[in-house]
C-alpha cells in the first residue's frame, strides 16, 4: 500500500493555511484512497521555536484536537506524536552523520533568519539554535523512517521534502538501496494561502486566521483581510481575490457558482467578507464544538496518540533495523 505521511509543528494555533493545504487534502486522501496514512504532531520540531512549558503543551494538544475535530479517524489513520516514537530520533542521528553541512546552509528557513539578522545588523546566528539548523534532517527522518511515498504539504515545505530525497539518495548510494524516495503533493491552487495582509499566512508573520476562533473573533479577522480598492458595486475578479479563494474552500459548488456571479456583477468587499464569514462559520461550527470538548479531555487525546505511536513504532522498527544493518551496526 502507498504510504502517505504529513506533520504539523506546534508553533502557533492551527490556521486556515494549515487546514487548506495540509489537513484537508491529507484527510481526503485517507478516505478516498487505499493507502496507509500517517499523520503526526511534529512536537520536537516545535521545540526549536517554543520554549515555554505551558504554551508548548497547549499548542501540541491543540494540533491533535484540530485533526480529530476535523474528522481524522484514528482507526483509519496512524495518528501520533513525534516525540512518542524514539526510532525517529535514532534515525535522525544516523542521517545527521551522513548529511553535508552545506545542505543545511542552503535551507530556505535558515537562510531567511540569516537575512533577517543581517537586516537588523545583529550577529548572523542570533536566534538560531542547533535544532533549528538541523531541522530538515529531523524532517527527513520523519519521512524516510516510514518509507513514505507521498507527503501532502504547502509550498513552503517543498524544499524540505526535496532535502529528504537528497538525504535518502545519498544513503542509498553509499549503503545500497534502502530508502524509498518520497514525493511532495502540493495542490497548485492552495500551495500558498495568503494571510490577512496578503503575504503568506504564517504563524511567524502574525497574519493568520486560526481555525477555531470564537465566532466574534472570526468575524473580526475576516473583516481585517486586505482587499483592493475596487469601489462597491463594481465587478471584481473572483479568481484574484483572497476572500474568494478562502470562500471556495468552505462553500458548496452551488454556493461558489452563485457568489462567483455576484463578484462578476458587482459586490462590495463588506458583503463578500460577510459571505465568507457565513460559510466558514457554518462549516466550522460542529468541529469547533468538538475541538473545545477535546481540549478539555487531554487524557483522551493522549490515549489516541499513544495507540497511534504503538502502530507507528511497529512499522518503524524493522526499517530502522535494516538501516542499522546497512551501516554495519550488526554483522
Ligand atoms: P508547519 O507546521 O509550518 O505547517 C503545516 C502545514 O501547513 C502548510 N502551510 C501552508 N500551506 C499553504 N499556505 C500557507 N500559508 C501555509 N502555512 C503553512 C505547510 O506547508 C505544512 O504542510 N516542517 C513542517 C512540519 C513537519 C513535516 C514533517 C511535514 C515536520 N516533519 C514531515 C511533512 C512531513 C512544518 O513546519 O509545517
From TrEMBL:
<dbReference type="InterPro" id="IPR014729">
    <property type="entry name" value="Rossmann-like_a/b/a_fold"/>
</dbReference>
<feature type="binding site">
    <location>
        <position position="142"/>
    </location>
    <ligand>
        <name>L-tryptophan</name>
    </ligand>
</feature>
<dbReference type="Pfam" id="PF00579">
    <property type="entry name" value="tRNA-synt_1b"/>
</dbReference>
<feature type="short sequence motif" description="'KMSKS' region">
    <location>
        <begin position="200"/>
        <end position="204"/>
    </location>
</feature>
<feature type="binding site">
    <location>
        <begin position="17"/>
        <end position="18"/>
    </location>
    <ligand>
        <name>ATP</name>
    </ligand>
</feature>
<dbReference type="InterPro" id="IPR001412">
    <property type="entry name" value="aa-tRNA-synth_I_CS"/>
</dbReference>
<feature type="binding site">
    <location>
        <position position="193"/>
    </location>
    <ligand>
        <name>ATP</name>
    </ligand>
</feature>
<keyword id="KW-0963">Cytoplasm</keyword>
<comment type="subunit">
    <text>Homodimer.</text>
</comment>
<dbReference type="GO" id="GO:0005829">
    <property type="term" value="C:cytosol"/>
</dbReference>
<keyword id="KW-0547">Nucleotide-binding</keyword>
<feature type="binding site">
    <location>
        <begin position="154"/>
        <end position="156"/>
    </location>
    <ligand>
        <name>ATP</name>
    </ligand>
</feature>
<dbReference type="GO" id="GO:0005524">
    <property type="term" value="F:ATP binding"/>
</dbReference>
<protein>
    <recommendedName>
        <fullName>Tryptophan--tRNA ligase</fullName>
        <ecNumber>6.1.1.2</ecNumber>
    </recommendedName>
</protein>
<feature type="binding site">
    <location>
        <begin position="200"/>
        <end position="204"/>
    </location>
    <ligand>
        <name>ATP</name>
    </ligand>
</feature>
<feature type="binding site">
    <location>
        <begin position="9"/>
        <end position="11"/>
    </location>
    <ligand>
        <name>ATP</name>
    </ligand>
</feature>
<dbReference type="GO" id="GO:0004830">
    <property type="term" value="F:tryptophan-tRNA ligase activity"/>
</dbReference>
<comment type="function">
    <text>Catalyzes the attachment of tryptophan to tRNA(Trp).</text>
</comment>
<dbReference type="InterPro" id="IPR024109">
    <property type="entry name" value="Trp-tRNA-ligase_bac-type"/>
</dbReference>
<keyword id="KW-0436">Ligase</keyword>
<dbReference type="GO" id="GO:0006436">
    <property type="term" value="P:tryptophanyl-tRNA aminoacylation"/>
</dbReference>
<comment type="similarity">
    <text>Belongs to the class-I aminoacyl-tRNA synthetase family.</text>
</comment>
<keyword id="KW-0030">Aminoacyl-tRNA synthetase</keyword>
<dbReference type="InterPro" id="IPR002305">
    <property type="entry name" value="aa-tRNA-synth_Ic"/>
</dbReference>
<dbReference type="InterPro" id="IPR050203">
    <property type="entry name" value="Trp-tRNA_synthetase"/>
</dbReference>
<keyword id="KW-0648">Protein biosynthesis</keyword>
<keyword id="KW-0067">ATP-binding</keyword>
<dbReference type="InterPro" id="IPR002306">
    <property type="entry name" value="Trp-tRNA-ligase"/>
</dbReference>
Amino acid at each position: 500500500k502507498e504510504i502517505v505521511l504529513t506533520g504539523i509543528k506546534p508553533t502557533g494555533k492551527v490556521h486556515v493555511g494549515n487546514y487548506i493545504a495540509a489537513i484537508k487534502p491529507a484527510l481526503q486522501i485517507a478516505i478516498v484512497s487505499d493507502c496507509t496514512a500517517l499523520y503526526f504532531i511534529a512536537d520536537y520540531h516545535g521545540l526549536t521555536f517554543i520554549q515555554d512549558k505551558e504554551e508548548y503543551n497547549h499548542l501540541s494538544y491543540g494540533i491533535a484536537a484540530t485533526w480529530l475535530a476535523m474528522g481524522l479517524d484514528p482507526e483509519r489513520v496512524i495518528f501520533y506524536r513525534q516525540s512518542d516514537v524514539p526510532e525517529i530520533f535514532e534515525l535522525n542521528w544516523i542521517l545527521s552523520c551522513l548529511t553535508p553541512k552545506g545542505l543545511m546552509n542552503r535551507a530556505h528557513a535558515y537562510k531567511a533568519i540569516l537575512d533577517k539578522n543581517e537586516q537588523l545588523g545583529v550577529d548572523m546566528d542570533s536566534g538560531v539554535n542547533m535544532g533549528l539548523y538541523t531541522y530538515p534532517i529531523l524532517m527527513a527522518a520523519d519521512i524516510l523512517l516510514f518509507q513514505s511515498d507521498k507527503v501532502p504539504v504547502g509550498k513552503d515545505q517543498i524544499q524540505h521534502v526535496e532535502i529528504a530525497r537528497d538525504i535518502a539518495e545519498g544513503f542509498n548510494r553509499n549503503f545500497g538501496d534502502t530508502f524509498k524516495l518520497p514525493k511532495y503533493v502540493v495542490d497548485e491552487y492552495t500551495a500558498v494561502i495568503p494571510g490577512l495582509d496578503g503575504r503568506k499566512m504564517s504563524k511567524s508573520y502574525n497574519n493568520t486566521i486560526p481555525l477555531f476562533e470564537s465566532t466574534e473573533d472570526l468575524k473580526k479577522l475576516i473583516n481585517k483581510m486586505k482587499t483592493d480598492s475596487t469601489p462597491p458595486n463594481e465587478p471584481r475578479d473572483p479568481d484574484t481575490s483572497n476572500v474568494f479563494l478562502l470562500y471556495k474552500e468552505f462553500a458548496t459548488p452551488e454556493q461558489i457558482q452563485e457568489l462567483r456571479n455576484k463578484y462578476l456583477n458587482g459586490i462590495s468587499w463588506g458583503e463578500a467578507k460577510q459571505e465568507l464569514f457565513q460559510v466558514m462559520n457554518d462549516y466550522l461550527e460542529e468541529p469547533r464544538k468538538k475541538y473545545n470538548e477535546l481540549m478539555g479531555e487531554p487524557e483522551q487525546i493522549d490515549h489516541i496518540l499513544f495507540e497511534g505511536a504503538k502502530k507507528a513504532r511497529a512499522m518503524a522498527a524493522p526499517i530502522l533495523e535494516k538501516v542499522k544493518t546497512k551501516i554495519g551496526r550488526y554483522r
